[in-house]
Amino acid sequence: MSLAIDSQRLLSEIEALALISDAEPPAVTRIVFTPTDLRARAWLIEKCQAAGLAVRQDPIGNMFARWAGSDAGAPMVGTGSHIDAIPNAGKYDGVVGVLGGLEAIRTLQKSGFRPRNSIELLLLTSEEPTRFGIGCLGSRLLSGSISPEAARKLADNDGQSLEEVRRKAEMHGELEEVKLPPGYYKAFVELHIEQGPLLERENLALGVVTKIAAPASARISIDGAGGHAGGVLMPERRDALCAAAELILAIENAARSSGAIDTVATVGICDVFPGAVNSIPSRVRLSLDVRDTNLDRRNAVLRVIDVASQEIAAKRRVPVSTEMLNADAPADCAPEVIDALSRACEKHGLSFRPMISRAYHDSLFISAVAPVAMLFIPCRNGYSHRPDEYASPEHIAQGTLALAETLASLSA
Ligand SMILES: [Zn+2]
Questions:
Q1: From ligand 1's centre to the CA of 384, what distance in Å?
Q2: Residue range 330-341: average pLDDT?
Q3: Do the beta carbons of residue 373 and residue 334 sit within 8 Å?
Q4: Which of 86, 219, 275, 382 lies deepest, with the highest CB count within 10 Å?
């Protein structure tokens, strides 16, 4: 079997998909179930069908494009990622795993290889939390990491329910049908840009992911008392933003003093109400994101933050309430998939190292129902989620080649 990636075709498809966007190039904005996202999906389905793949979509819009293997009863070998993009993002995050997965399948077809296990390309819905406030919606439902009832309670930033939005997008059926039956996948591999600087710094072609860090996220509401910026004297104040400021620094400190470099905590949103120059902030909403590769350590940080919020609330007489949105466990990748990836790299003379994924991905959730691993390619300066995100044609082709080889060995 000799594998030759059509790098030209793959790159031109990455460029073409980047133009299906709500932002001016080179930026990419593609929010789930917007007309733009639906156009991108239709474009992708056409490409999959042109490759002879049988396409189906589930009720949350996860797309499965299957290359039938010779043993119809054997479990699938899956690959894929997402194509939704946060506002003002780049063109490679997620896309490399979807279009690289498609190219890997086409490369195997052209080589004459015929799989025993069917190979399935997955497009996973709403990996980014932009619209519904929760990431990896498609893979959470696939793996049962979120219940259909909980998912039905989700609404977007305009107050439209997930049910409404997905039906408008013509995703039919009930969310109960999304969860995969046990043993559906023999293995799942996700190709992705690293979104960090290590591979580039070490001049390596690929990273084989052995662990995926666990995110926990919460919405924090701080309710103080508003009033006139001139009229209310300092001793009387219950300023919600001052309390938020103290809490944000306590959060930073909790992560810094966890004892491990792997602990990170971020407050990325601070909404201030009423937001007027001469009005005391009466209400603040914060977002909290805490990640770690170790569940106990991350939970310990969450407890420290909780104690700090209670202390600040008592001292400043402003109630602070925290609503946990998700607190997922980290994933260990499957040894047999890690092995298949490592052997594929070795076979093609591609330099690689084992590594930890510090961003979370759909694979984190799929790991609950399938043996998974991920393959990272370098991205320039580690930049991601910004318009100047960049992965070289050479690295994209090498990642796709290693992916093709891995899919072949897992499905033979
Ligand atoms: Zn991604």
A1: 9
A2: 96
A3: yes
A4: 86
Largest CA distance in the chain: 80
Give the Å distance between the CA of 219 and the centre of ligand 1.
Answer: 22
∠ CA 355-332-386 to the nearest 5 degrees? 50
Calpha distance 391→396 (Å, rounded):
7
Residue 289's identity, in one-letter code, is: D
| pLDDT for residue 6 | 98
Q: How far is the CA of 236 from the centre of ligand 1 (A)?
A: 47
How many degrees, rounded to 5, is the angle at CA 371 between CA 365 and CA 373?
Answer: 75
pLDDT tens-digit series, residues 132-191:
988 999 999 999 999 999 999 999 989 999 999 999 999 999 999 999 998 999 999 999
User: For residue 133, what pLDDT is reported?
Assistant: 87
| Residue (of 255, 245, 105) closest to 189 by Cα position | 105
74 C-alpha to center of ligand 1: Å?
29
The CA 193 to ligand 1 mean position distance, Å, reads 8
Ligand 1 midpoint to CA 376 (Å): 11
Q: What is the pLDDT of residues 204-248, one digit of tens each?
A: 999 999 999 878 999 999 999 999 999 999 999 999 999 999 999
Phi and psi dihedrals of 114, rounded to 5?
-125, 120
CA of 379 to the centre of ligand 1 (A): 12
Q: Does the N-terminal peptide bond of residue 274 adopt cis geometry, omega within 30 degrees of 0?
A: yes
CA–centroid distance, residue 202 to ligand 1 (Å): 22
Q: What are the pLDDT digits (tens) for 36-93?
A: 999 999 999 999 999 999 999 999 999 999 999 999 999 999 999 999 999 999 999 9
Calculate the alpha carbon distances from 324 to 216, 302, 303 in Å. Answer: 8, 10, 12
What is the distance in angstroms between the CA of the first residue and the CA of the last residue of the chain? 12
Å from CA of 320 to ligand 1 middle = 32
